């Protein structure tokens, strides 16, 4: 049979489509021209990249692209397994090519590879090329990176400091002549990140290397990867110590001198110099430009214990004693330049500046601490005080009525301030100063500039401000104009004990920016809370009625990074119709991210005044914003909710002479924590504050007290609290405890304090003082966030890129495997049982001395359970831990479970596991903490750090119509590394809840609150009672996976709940109904709690209790609370002979045999606030990329001496044809389908 004429045409079409598709797949050669200076990888792998063959110098598939950061050329391409050779050709032919060591026409470079992406870098100056398959890329992150053209200092990803092994001897070298005169610090880093770095003596994450150089001189670096030792040689180094502040003026008679600078000879001597205007230097071995204050003597016994208080990092320094100086002479010297010289046989051996915080405290803080700073009033007459002990002169500048104040540098009425005791400058005012704008002109020597300047600054104690904080305002907070009636007349609701705290975390813009029921001018403002049209306020009322006690507000003090002029705020233009995994939304948000109205606000500018961007138009200046803030507090109190403010005293927005710097422009070198060289530490993210210094602590205490007394705030959360000392926190506690209703309008003893107790940064390990961290706040009742319970519920670490690989109790670990685990089923089961123990201890107040039957089969204390190498239980009182499973930092709970639950988990399971996770927090004995909207399954479209992600990714939909999932790929800055994994999840419609799903989650969350508030047994509030009454039956080595049983027995000891004999809470995190006899419960009558029996969840109503056998039946993915009605008829405090005394522990369990101990879980940083990391680099709240931890080292989360940096070169730099399997597969399937269809059509044509 002849072939119809249509068949050849069809074949031709299919052939053309095949060729076109093959080109996309990389099986046909590219025809684009290579530029004349374009470097191209040529080698044995080019054919696999889609080139016409190997060793093709004109193939664009292997061309290298210029990196704008460094000027180097790079590409990441998929290389097949095997042994390979290559070199670099220039301009599309082999006339110019470079091999090993950058030699023209040199030997080909070889490497072996297992297959997959390989990154190449080429230096067009040296012609050296290297691949990641040959060994690590080594760079030099340090304090000089920006001087070499990197976008910032401490940047391991910047290839401008790429160390190369040109001669192949195994030693990497780098040299430069581009550094300015000065002293610098540096580390060696592998792979373009802080994951692997080496300091002094080759120590991993060790101390920074230091060096100095004259401007333009040659500095050479050599690094041996075998020993990890870095050597540095400067051709003309500065005198040791030059350009730094390595000496520490500890008190008026003692200076600490670094031991490594001490000379060997007996002729070594030290001399202190001063120069009122600066200019001290060294010429021909002699000090010039300064006046000697005398020689110092070496104290053989070293620094005394009192001298090391708050300065533990100086332990190894030597002690030098000053000659006896008149205090006036010393005070005058401190107002100019101070330098300490070390003389040796050949002249000056070292010359360095001094860190002066210690001596300023010794001379001035005692008197200054007793004085009121800022504006204070005697009737209607104000006076203004500023602490500036090193200032030469201070002038008060009055700018007229605050609402009309112009540029701070414009002409103003000047009032000379008088220097008094304690270094405090004061100006006595008149009644007409009220509501005027003012600034200070401070004449002061600035060490970093080496000269005297006059700084125009606002008052660090400002209680009122003009728009964008251009001026302070002479504001009387006692003026009746600023006391709204609702606030003045509405008392704060009482919370019985700190353990009862049930906290709801909110950002003001998240709360109302998207509420279309509100007038536009009210959205995102203080005035939105309590507004009659506010849907969010309606929800707050429901939460309060159900048992929520407290609203925690993210920073509302004056913030440096938000435009306050609403007319000047930019608004992202979100494209309509952009897909759920599109990049367009984040592009629009990022384009205006620093000019819009949104930021979390962890960038403090003034600590005692409200933020102006949250006030409505016309109410942003002076007392007007105070009125709106106080009205908000009154509205929340009226709803029955206490108010907690998020405080950030660990850092300021800026330091030195930079815009946004206040404190450092008044007393240079005092308020900020300095490293050993005198540079400001930035481990928190930003400009660390030194609250170990007396006047910095005073600012912290005074500000906290002001918010409590003048705004009637009920509690405080401390960002990165571990960067404060225990002494700081107890000082705050004591000052608040002194407040009384009669004298101050507030009972300070009722104010709850908690914060991020992460341990990282330059203070880590109590390096300078005893830190306010987990386990070191015993018996203070100050809470720390409990990352143990959080991570046990989630699994893995908040900082995992592919979070699917590690599940937790709350998302299917060992009970609903998601298919991405990297360990065996047995290891997963062991991990689950250990994590369940962590939850048990967490729900029992995370007490160090609480005992339970552990997964090892042995009875263990809370502090004997392991959490990543540290004790899990650490509290002495239940309120000393705050239990949470999500917060503003890191992913929302719903998003975390999108990652970790099986990808095909149905929505009803997602709803139930959201509730079950929240129940671990809500039904425990410690304060409970929910992120705003988590009860509505709020999503941020998988954003891991939404600090600057705008309203689009952060807003909460209180109407329960949407939860925010699928709002586009989250912003690139913090999420790009995981975009490839996020995209398919965001595009899956099955992961977007319906309004009905959200409504069910909302209603069941309210039931959790009702359960918590239904009985005093839920929050006993006392460690002895918890040890006596709380137990965890059915635990141990053979515990049923996914089952957690918590019993509170009110038949032992004091009768706490006259209506109940106890309660049993049963968690079933598995995907099967569990029926199990509960240890020790035979014959004990229980019934499902009435809240659940009549509640919103129909599934939990299927839970049953069999009294005869003490057996509970609980459906999958469910938490059920069973209660035992009161039967005891005695009220004896001792409970009778058969009852345990307080502190005794009932033997748990069913007689399991002792077994092996549980291995630690995943090694991870403790912080949820990010602030952990190796140094700068911010997560927005400084939570090194943890408060964090939040926190902290998240909290930040982090802790080397050098700042966190950007990641190494990302996958996105691969060549255009270097596609991964997931990218190629759709094309391959399409091609197969196309060819199959064609063959079928041809066959049909033949039959026809």
TrEMBL record:
GO terms for molecular function: pullulanase activity. The chain crosses the membrane at residues 1224-1243. Coiled coil: none annotated. Residues 1183-1213 have a biased composition (Low complexity). Pfam families: CBM_48 (PF02922), Pullul_strch_C (PF11852), Pullulanase_N2 (PF17967), X25_BaPul_like (PF22058). It comes from the Bacteria. GO terms for biological process: carbohydrate metabolic process. Residues 1-33 form the signal peptide. Residues 596-900 form the Glycosyl hydrolase family 13 catalytic domain. Keywords: Membrane, Signal, Transmembrane, Transmembrane helix. Residues 1124-1218 are annotated as: Disordered. The keyword Signal applies. Belongs to the glycosyl hydrolase 13 family. PANTHER family: GLYCOGEN DEBRANCHING ENZYME. This is Alpha-1,6-glucosidase, pullulanase-type. It comes from Brachybacterium faecium (strain ATCC 43885 / DSM 4810 / JCM 11609 / LMG 19847 / NBRC 14762 / NCIMB 9860 / 6-10). The lineage of its organism: Bacteria, Bacillati, Actinomycetota, Actinomycetes, Micrococcales.
